[in-house]
Amino acid sequence: KHPLWKTLGFQGEDPQTDFRGGGVLGLRALLYWAENHTEMATKIINTQPEKVEHQYPVSTAGITISAHLSTFLGVKLITLNNKSKPELKGISESPLARAISRTFGRDELDAEAL
């Protein structure tokens, strides 16, 4: 727990609470976004308002988008509590996960990647 997590676009000082709905897929999507679109991620994070009561913090929004897209596409999420279940392993390495993570750096979903 640390106050700087809020600076990175999480709702509070403990980012684990933001990952409840998006699980490992949300984490991997944010990691992909930060590693592959670093300049854009830095700009967005640095320009979000300090007080986010009326806005959705960027990291939390990314996790939520991942969760909604996976639900829409019928993919079960690996959560922090069920990551050891064999039937769920490998989802975060799937083309779907990569396609969802690419949406963090594009205006629209890359239909070809799905």
UniProtKB/TrEMBL annotation:
Q: Name one Pfam family in it.
A: ELMO_CED12
Q: State the name under which the record lists this protein.
A: ELMO domain-containing protein
Please state every residue range assigned to the domain named ELMO. Answer: 1-114
Q: Which domain of life is it from?
A: Eukaryota
Which organism was this protein described from?
Lotharella oceanica
List the transmembrane segments. Answer: none
